[in-house]
Amino acid sequence: MKGTLNELQGKIFEELVKEIKYGRDVSIKSFSEKYFVSPSFLVKLSKKLGYSGFKELVFSLRMDGKMPKLMEAPDGTDYPHMIISNYSKELAGEFARKLLDARPYYIYAAARGYSGMVVEYMSQKLLAQGYRMVYMEGVHEISNHQNNIGILVSESGETEAVVEVARTFQNQGNCTIAFLSNGNSRLGRMVDLPIVISKWKDENEWGFSTFVPYSIIAFDLLFSNVQKEEQKAKTVS
């Protein structure tokens, strides 16, 4: 059975796909030296993807022109890592706990530009589930109470208005969650729980962004855990 790729393995795999796409040398020696990983690391990565070794993985990518089974799993196995680059069971569990704790309080959300579509989707989903959701235009809409949650959406993590909202929330002692592409941005370093959205490998080449659809999918993936936990609680009671 294939294991789940961690963040480093996922990044190295993406680089391998790029190297093969551009016809570069991907011998285990040259590739490991270029990306500062050991040959044994690449062998373990290959086996996690269901291959006997690195050569078979490279052969599959070159000859078949297909992604490994990891990327094609119809049952969603390992799928979160394609959408959320820092995904882990701990992250999903923490997201679920924070939203469950917010039930008696309010969830405030802020975004600008196209990222607003993500917040609009979240709002509809959360309101339908009985959450108190407020889509903010500015910091003046934040109530001066603790225990609320702020959800911030910014692809760059540097949108000044969104960073200001996050800062105000934290100064009030509230929890902050961010959906963003750059975990090392000001917003990513500031919030309690950054959800780092993966970027499709050819975005720059084709001139488009998957941030909005990937953020919506990421929210659904994480929110499904919240719903499962609530269902468990109802069953127990």
Primary descriptors:
52% helix, Arc Repressor Mutant, subunit A, 2 domains, five-stranded parallel beta sheet, single chain, 237 residues, alpha/beta, elongated, Rossmann fold
In short:
The chain is 52% helix and 11% strand.
**Mean pLDDT score:** 83
> Largest sheet, if any?
5 strands, parallel
Q: Whole-number radius of gyration?
A: 20 Å
- Shape verdict: elongated
Strand order of the largest sheet: 2-1-3-4-5
The CATH architecture name of the largest domain reads: 3-Layer(aba) Sandwich
By DSSP (H or I, 4+ residues per run), the number of helices equals: 12
Could you describe the 3D structure shown?
It is a single chain. With 237 residues, this protein is of the alpha/beta class. It folds into two domains: 7-78, Arc Repressor Mutant, subunit A, CATH 1.10.10; 89-236, Glucose-6-phosphate isomerase like protein, domain 1 (Rossmann fold, 3-Layer(aba) Sandwich), CATH 3.40.50.10490. It has helices at residues 7-21, 28-34, 39-48, 54-64, 69-72, 80-83, 89-101, 116-128, 160-171, 186-190, 203-206, 211-236; strands at residues 106-111, 132-135, 149-153, 175-180, 193-196. It is elongated.
